[in-house]
Every structure is written in C-alpha cells, then in structure tokens.
Design a protein that fits this description.
By secondary structure, the protein is α/β, with parallel strands linked by helices. The chain folds into two domains: about 260 residues, Aldolase class I (TIM Barrel), CATH 3.20.20; about 90 residues, no CATH class. The strands form two sheets. An eight-stranded parallel β-barrel has the order 1-2-3-4-5-6-7-8, surrounded by eight helices. It has a two-stranded parallel sheet with strand order 9-10. The longest helix is centred in the C-terminal third of the chain and has 18 residues. The structure holds acetyl coenzyme *A (ACO) and 2-oxoglutaric acid.
C-alpha cells in the first residue's frame, strides 16, 4: 500500500448539490443551495458538483445563480454524454462538466441497450463538442467498478486524445471493498492515460474507506457529500474523508474543519435528514463519555479516549452519568456542581446512580443528581418526569 506523497494535491469535489440532492425525496431550495455552496467554498472545498442542467429551466437557473456567486470553488455539472446536456450546461454558465457514460457491460447492454463501440463513439462526440467550447472535462465512468479495467483504460486513452482532463472511477452500486478499490484505481493509475477521480457509494458501509483507498492508489480527486447524503445509502461523507485523511493517513487537507458541525446541521435540515447522534465525526454524541474507565481516562488526558479534540469539528465533549459510570467521573461531575463528598458517600451515590439508570434506561440530569445528593435514599422521588 502506497503512502500518500506529500507533493500531491488532493482535490475534494463535493457533490452534495448533485448526488446529495439525488437522494430519493430530497430537494434543496435555491436559497439552501446557495448557503451550502457558500459554506463549502468558505471552508476550502475545491470543487462543487452543483446540478444537472439537462433537467430543465429551473435547474439551469439555479446553476446560473451559483455561478453568479463568484465562488473560489470550481463549479462542475453532471451531463450524459449527449450534446444537448452539455449545451444546457454551457447555457447555465459553468466552465466544467462531468460527461457521464455507463462503462460496465451490464449497463451498456441492459441500460443503454448499446455496445462498447457505441460508448466509445458517443464519448468521442461529446468530448469534441465540450472541448470545442473550452470546457474542463471529467469523464464519468458510471459503474466503473463492474467494468472491464482494460476497457476503462481504452476510454482514458480516447479521453486524453480528445482533451479530457480526468476520469471518474465510480463505484456506482457501492459494492467494493477498500482492497479491491485500491487494486482497480492502482491499475488505472499505472495503465490509464488520465488523472483519476473516485466516486464511492455506501451500500456496504465502505464509501469513506473506499474513497481513501482510491486516494492512496493515486486518485487526485475525490467525491464527497456532507453527512454522506446521496443515492440509496449515500456517498463518502465530506467530514469523514477529511478527518480520515488527517488522522488515518497523516495527510491533512487544506479544509477548515471547525465548521463541519454547522455545515452538517445545515444540510441535515435542508435535506430533512436529521443527523444521527452517533454519526461519525459530526454526531452530537460522538464525544460523550459515560463508562467509568473512559471518563477517568478522558478527565486525566482527553487523548486517552479521543482521536481528536471535539472543537476541531465544532462539537463539545459530554460527560454522562449512567449505568456504566465510575467513581472518578461521578466525583468530577459533583465537583463541577460545587458538591464535595467523602469517598464512601460517592461510592454509595454511584450505586444509586446505577440503579436509577437501569430502572429508567437513561442517564441522569444534573438536577436529578443534586436531588439525589440531598435525598440519597429516595430514588423515585428524585427523578424528573
Ligand atoms: C449514477 C448517477 O447518479 S447518474 C445521474 C443520474 N441523475 C438523474 O437521473 C437525475 C436527473 N435526471 C433527469 O432529470 C432525467 O433523467 C434526464 C433529464 C437526464 C433525462 O430525462 P428523460 O429524457 O426523460 O429520460 P429518462 O431519464 O427517462 O431516460 C434516460 C435516457 O438516457 C439514456 N442514458 C442514460 N445514461 C446515459 C448516458 N450516460 N449517456 C447517454 N445516454 C444515457 C438512457 O439509456 C435513456 O435513453 P432511452 O430513452 O434511449 O432509453
Ligand atoms: O459521473 C458519473 O458517471 C456518475 C456518478 C454517480 O453518481 C455514480 O456513478 O454513482
């Protein structure tokens, strides 16, 4: 497995506004799209895949409105390998397009009803048109992970000949594991003729791992969505890929992570897909500590049980009292509340905390703890609600 060379520039192409909005039932208003685009741009995301102009006038107007914001990020649209789709993108004002074609035999036969030769000819036609309009082009290899890798290499050669800028390897159905993703992308990196982009889906829960594997194997562009929104089980989550690059790969990207939670909540609301409390990196409770040994460890030195500081992504730490608590965690909580008890009283209180937590199947609030300190033997009398 290769280390990620520090001289490589890895570009995030975030597709919250395209694949994210393709999530069944999700629609962003123009105002929401602008807020999301602005926030992504401000934190340093390099590219935004921002819509599908072929859908019609309203989508074109929203892409145009994003273009008019004058963001630093490159705006790119999704297009079939069809001249009229690309024309619609030009009409919307973007200077970069993803030109997508199904590349697996399954799709070529059973979706397009065509042949590999048709795919090559269609790509050629679309590229000639796009390049005659000076567009930056990523070739979108839909269903690449089920395609013949040598056919993909052939497509990159056609792409290079007609001026395409990169090839997007798509695990469209999210069927890959990181090891095979690595092997495929590595093969294309060594034998293909274009820089690579990876687009991974989460159907087997491996989108982020596969995105990282693709980068390790040589892809310089990676697709993400905020909260991992996207078709079916979603895409690789922006916040996960960025934090994994920093902490799993020792290769931080130039992204301001402090606004991840703000961005996550914005997209959660706009998509009507609230963010689960346990969502990796941005879930409200992913820095909550209840278990005795963990709480003790965190109180002594947070890095004992936290991979990074919660403030780095805009979260805060919660110390929770419940069934699994230990004496140090309880003592610390009491001290924060201005209560000082001897060790034997703390031990007794801890047993009461356990009983309450088990009986009511939850943790204890501060006022319940204070009530318990005042009335240590009256368990049912100290509980809220
Ligand atoms: C894996 C992905 O996420 S790819 C992105 C998919 N995103 C979307 O589909 C969302 C937006 N899509 C749309 O608004 C519409 O589907 C449109 C505007 C693109 C096309 O609409 P319609 O013309 O009504 O066609 P419809 O979607 O029903 O069918 C798709 C047609 O495009 C063809 N097609 C599909 N992909 C491609 C491609 N990459 N290149 C060329 N043709 C394609 C299909 O074979 C079918 O053609 P047919 O009519 O000859 O059978
Ligand atoms: O660019 C493409 O070809 C399709 C991208 C995509 O959304 C996918 O394959 O899942």
């Amino acid at each position: 497995m290769k280390a990620i060379d520090s001289t490589r520039t890895i570009v995030i192409d975030d597709t919250t506004l395209r694949d994210g909005e393709q999530t069944a039932g999700v629609v962003f208003s123009l105002e929401e799209k602008k807020q999301i685009a602005k926030a992504l741009d401000e934190i340093g995301v390099g590219e935004l895949e921002c819509g599908i102009p072929a859908m019609g006038r309203e989508e074109q107007a929203s892409v145009r409105a994003l273009v008019d914001m004058g963001l630093n990020a490159r705006l790119i649209t999704w297009n079939r390998a069809v001249v009229s789709d690309i024309q619609a993108s030009i009409h919307s004002g973007v200077k970069a397009v993803d030109i997508s074609l199904s590349v697996s035999d399954i799709h070529i036969e059973h979706k397009l009803g065509k042949s590999r030769d048709w795919v090559k000819a269609q790509l050629h036609r679309a590229l000639e048109f796009a390049k005659s309009h000076d567009l930056y082009v990523s070739i979108g290899g839909e269903d690449s992970s089920r395609a013949d890798l040598d056919f993909l290499c052939e497509l990159t050669e056609i792409g290079a000949e007609y001026g395409a800028d990169r090839f997007r390897y798509c695990d469209t159905l999210g069927l890959m594991d990181p090891f095979t993703t690595y092997d495929h992308v590595d093969y294309l990196h060594r034998n293909g003729a274009l820089p690579l982009e990876v687009h991974t889906h989460n159907d087997l829960g491996m989108a982020t791992a596969n995105a990282i594997a693709g980068i390790r194997a040589g892809a310089d562009f990676v697709n993400t969505t905020v909260n991992g929104l996207g078709e079916r089980a979603g895409n690789a989550a922006l916040e996960e890929v960025v934090m994994a690059m920093k902490y799993a790969c020792d290769r931080p990207l130039a992204i301001d992570t402090h606004r991840f939670v703000e961005l996550s909540r914005l997209v959660g609301q706009a998509s009507h897909r609230p963010v689960p409390e346990w969502k990796a990196v941005v879930g409200e409770k992913v820095f909550s500590h209840e278990s005795g040994l963990h709480a003790d460890g965190v109180l002594k030195y947070p890095k004992n049980y936290e991979g990074f500081d919660p403030s780095e992504v805009g979260l805060t730490r919660h110390m929770v009292l419940g069934k699994h608590s230990g004496g140090h965690g309880l003592q610390s909580r009491l001290q924060n509340l201005g209560v000082h008890l001897e060790a034997d009283k703390v031990n007794f209180l801890l047993q009461q905390v356990r009983s309450i937590s088990q009986k009511y199947k939850r943790s204890l609030a501060d006022d319940e703890l204070l009530n318990l300190v005042a009335h240590p033997t009256n368990i049912s009398g100290v509980i809220n609600g």
